[in-house]
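User: Sequence in, structure out. Go.
Assistant: Echoing your sequence, followed by the structure tokens.
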Amino acid sequence: MALAKATRDRLAAAGSARIAAALAQRGQRRAPSLAGLRPVSPVQDVLVGPASHSPTACPPGSVLVLAAPPVPGLALLARRQVAGLVCGAPLRTARELAQSGLPAFHRPAGAAPRPLAIDDGAVVVGDSAGLVVVPAALAEELAEEVAEAAAWEAFIAEQVDAGGGVYGLHIPSGEQGRRAFAAWRRLKGR
């Protein structure tokens, strides 16, 4: 399943923590199999893309998900134009992956490999805060929801920074808050 650029951008901008919170509001928790996964580099780009478990059939823009090494060579990953890599075991090639700039997550050295509960097509989002998996059927809707939440938070922060009170603004369903937010959005073009 191809992921629309607008959806990809919204999820990347939102980050894994905000997405995890939105999933939790829907009763979905992070998969325990994702616990302990770390980025290969603390400064890597945000990882966003639909999951694929096949190195030879991974569509461009997808995240290659492997239970354990071996990892395909960087040349194959570049040729396939993968968005990144997630591995349920420590990667011996972590340094090379970090140097290549390809976003990747793995278990730290010495950790036992664990299978990853990530379905093909589910959207993987990873950043310095962690890794989350969004069911494919929810990706577009959730992207819109987290973008809206980010806009609301920016609005509230701007109101507080300007010295305005937050009475009535902390509840998004409040009429005063809705009117002020709508006016702010028109002003900001958001």
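User: And one key feature?
Assistant: DSSP finds five helices and seven strands in the chain.
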